[in-house]
Amino acid sequence: MxxxxxxxxxxxxxxxxxxxxxxxxxxxxxxxxxxxxxxxxAYALKRAEAAGIEGVCVSPRDFDNRELFNNALLKSLxxxxxxxxxxxxxxxxxxxxxxxxxRGRIINIHPALIPAxxxxxxxxxxxxxxxxxxxxxxxxxxxxFVDEDLDHGPILLQKAVDVxxxxxxxxLQRRVMEEAEWILLPRAISLIAQGxxxxxxxxxxxxxxxx
Length: 211
Ligand code: GAR
Prior knowledge:
Layout: E1 2-8, H1 13-23, E2 30-37, H2 43-50, E3 55-57, H3 66-80, E4 84-87, H4 96-101, E5 106-110, H5 125-134, E6 138-145, E7 155-162, H6 169-193, E8 197-199, E9 205-207
Parallel strand pairs: 1-2, 1-4, 2-3, 4-5
Antiparallel strand pairs: 5-6, 6-7, 8-9
């Protein structure tokens, strides 16, 4: 059984996609053991509760400095004892101590085709605003492993989504979620649960054929 901890900050539609995929068998042999939010008002926590999953808030606001918050986040993750940490709309830079403790076992969903439209300032709706203001005709989503650099680790899955005439950031965000994110993230977890993902010495991922 793959033990998964999911880190969230907001609406939690990606969390919901994972919950649903476990329920309907698209992801097998997997259990969400804890949902951690940096925001106590995140709707994602309500989704966790509705699914009978433990949800906790670890907020920087509750600590005097960043190091204390980082340690608390690490402690909460260690308590959950996950095999895999999924960043599903987690708007916090993952501290080095967490990356160190769970190296190669953290994945993130990013709402664009990395290495385009990623890095500092590229999160949530801002990504789609920047795609539109640059006039890109194609965008998409990426699931990647997390390393010390923002939006940088080994790419696991990507899916392209068309930008359409008249799109607003909100309309494009919704299309990227529906056509890419909610499909890719459950698929990535399923592949990992099946032991089909390898990262080679060059930091490239390889997916083994289904047997
Ligand atoms: C998603 O679009 C996710 O890709 C993005 O935030 C949204 C969260 O939505 N993540 C990032 O921008 C991370 N850099 P959700 O809470 O409904 O899943």
